[in-house]
Structure to design on (384 residues):
């Protein structure tokens, strides 16, 4: 099961709830920013300026003050920032918008996740039950595709669905119970087949994954938060050499949904994410294991341009990030206009980069998969 070949690996950190892009990558030279954010505008002296990594010149943009640990990767030229990322006719529903990002289907309800399809291409015969691994509760739609096994781990230290059940007969009986539980909603035949198949794959994956923590040693320390522990789990799994190609996790559910008390909440969220992303990259670099990893961070939408006094409401276009040794650092796309007549319904930023352009680049240039059947026919973004 241990693979010596260093295939490219994609790690994904989904920022659940709708991250406020305007206060993440801040256009501090634009006077309209202060006009729209009288209560939540970040004082200019606290903003971390993003200078051009090649020339050292000011760009007019800066990080939220809690994102200090990430500035290293920008200065190294290893971080791509996607400005104005989104999709046409945006949905302001968490569930629908995340579903669109997961399936690349903005015009209809998609059944297959973009990464589930990618895993199928990477491992057509499902020879490795750990080609895709998710850390967190449930299985994100991005990883879902019928017939594609994906292990979903709540806590790697104690992981092992049904592994405490001794004997194949007892395991099979337990899987049948799961099947009967789910059959009223998705049909008995399909439910039993699906649960048995994926349950058996989960058992195999559990047995293998359970060995990862014991093989892991490191000089870094992750935060004792969900993000910290899941990023550690991603590192442990990658370093174990199981041949995992897609490693996925999500920040605590709707944490970035900052309708109220945003100043404190958003600061805490980015403190957590930034510190643990830095630790994760330092961890892999310390093991000489970062060279074949690209990390993608995104959120289902941004926030409204104007604050509501205490927070911000659901918006449209936002920012996303990619970090890796092979990432060509810099800004990609244009910052959406803050001019009143350029805002879309409800006072929101209009996207100028389709997220499927970024996906297409990852699929073709990193995972070496034809992107068109998965993401559609989009122009790639030259960041890899």
């Amino acid at each position: 099961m241990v693979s010596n070949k260093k295939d490219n690996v994609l790690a994904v950190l989904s920022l659940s709830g709708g991250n406020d892009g305007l206060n993440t990558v801040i256009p501090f030279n634009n006077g309209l920013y202060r006009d729209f954010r009288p209560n939540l505008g970040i004082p200019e002296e606290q903003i971390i300026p993003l200078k051009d990594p090649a020339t050292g010149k000011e760009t007019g943009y800066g990080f939220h003050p809690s994102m200090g640990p990430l500035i290293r990767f920008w200065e190294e030229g290893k971080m791509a920032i996607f400005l104005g990322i989104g999709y046409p006719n945006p949905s302001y529903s968490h569930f629908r918008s995340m579903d669109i990002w997961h399936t690349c289907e903005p015009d209809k309800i998609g059944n297959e996740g973009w990464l589930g399809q990618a895993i199928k291409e990477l491992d057509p015969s499902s020879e490795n039950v750990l080609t895709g691994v998710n850390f967190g509760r449930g299985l994100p739609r991005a990883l879902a595709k019928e017939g594609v096994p994906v292990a979903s781990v709540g806590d790697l230290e104690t992981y092992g669905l049904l592994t405490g059940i001794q004997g194949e007969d007892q395991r099979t009986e337990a899987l049948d119970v799961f099947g009967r539980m789910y059959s009223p909603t998705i049909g008995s035949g399909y439910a039993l087949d699906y649960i048995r198949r994926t349950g058996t794959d989960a058992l195999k994956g559990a047995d293998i994954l359970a060995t990862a923590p014991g093989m892991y040693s490191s000089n870094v320390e992750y935060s004792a938060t969900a993000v910290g522990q899941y990023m550690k789990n991603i590192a442990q799994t990658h370093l174990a050499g199981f041949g995992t190609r897609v490693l996925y996790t999500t920040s605590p559910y709707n944490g970035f949904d900052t309708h109220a008390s945003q100043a404190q909440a958003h600061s805490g969220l980015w403190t957590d994410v930034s510190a643990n992303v830095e630790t994760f990259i330092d961890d892999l670099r310390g093991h000489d294991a970062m060279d074949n990893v690209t990390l993608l961070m995104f959120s289902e939408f941004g926030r409204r341009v104007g604050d509501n006094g205490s927070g911000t409401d659901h918006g449209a276009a936002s920012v996303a990030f990619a970090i890796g040794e092979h990432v060509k650092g810099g800004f990609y796309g244009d910052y959406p206009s803050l001019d009143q007549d350029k805002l879309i319904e409800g006072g929101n930023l209009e996207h100028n980069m389709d997220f499927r352009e970024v996906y297409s680049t990852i699929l073709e240039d990193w995972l070496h998969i034809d992107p068109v059947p998965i993401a559609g026919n989009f122009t790639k973004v030259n960041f890899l």
